[in-house]
Amino acid sequence: MLKKFTNFFFIASILYSTISSAGTSALISEIPKATAPYLAHYEHKLNAYGNLVLEIKKKTPNCITDLKNIRDIVHKEWDKRGILVYLPIALGSLGKQITALDFDLYDIDIAKQQIIYIYRNGRGIPNISTGFTSATVFIFRDNPKTHEREILVVNEYDKNAIMVPAGYGAETELAVNTAIREVQEEVGISLKREQLVVAAIRNQVSKAVDKNHVSFCFTAIVPWDTKVQIDNKEVMDYAWVPLNKLLDDNFEMFGKKFFQGYAMVLKNTSPIGVMKSVKDGEDILKVTPFAQD
After folding, report:
1. Cα–Cα distance between 290 and 281 in angstroms, integer?
2. Helix boundaries (H) for 101-174
3. Which pTM does this prediction carry?
4. Residues of the chain with CATH 3.40.630.30
5. What are the pLDDT digits (tens) for 88-137?
6. Using CA atoms, how far apart are residues 131 and 211, in angstroms rounded to an integer?
7. 24-119: which CATH number, 1.10.1040.10, 3.30.70.1340, 3.40.50.300, 3.40.630.30?
């Protein structure tokens, strides 16, 4: 069972969305070239998470056909990414045809008078309008030869920093189950609930859209001989790295440096997941120690 905590604390840097907010210029993934003839008629871009965003501003004879062709190509050639379609509320009558293409109603932007539909492409992307969670997992092992504590890191296709297993929760999914699922999907390790300890929780409410995001950071210790099997979809490589080495500001691997948001959490967290007491930093950083029952 997960331990209960009497005090929650908030760490801005562990939020999974921050990982992707470096901008689309850092993404390795590219929109499939075969979509170009169809996308040429619409404003489009990659968002911070690497998903295709396109805007249908007016109804044309070919807009639904174009969208179907784009969806088919993305499904066939770009299985790691989804599609977001922004549609003026005035064109809401197109919604039935869009949902018939396996798009779901995702959100409504009242300020911009837009309806947003999403093609998840097999991924558990949550509906932002209902609030959502994410989970990050620091997985440790003890090296019997060097007597060092090592941490599992991954090299993801679309990230410009060294990462650890993490991801968004599917709709109604508990954060601990998100952690278990993401670790299984990305590195093939089967964790049990009792192995996971909450190291940090952050609750963020976006003032712009009044939506809630709760981010959980877990730690787990696994046996030395634990096997790793990467998915080759999001993750293309992995390594076990001594914790002290990883936290060196000059450390690089896979041609990347360790994500600084994770480094901040680890520098204030013991390898068994107990948060050290630190002073408050900026207004967005509020860290306090917690007690375990």
Report:
1. 18
2. none
3. 0.56
4. 24-119
5. 888 877 888 998 999 988 877 767 788 889 999 887 776 655 567 889 99
6. 6
7. 3.40.630.30
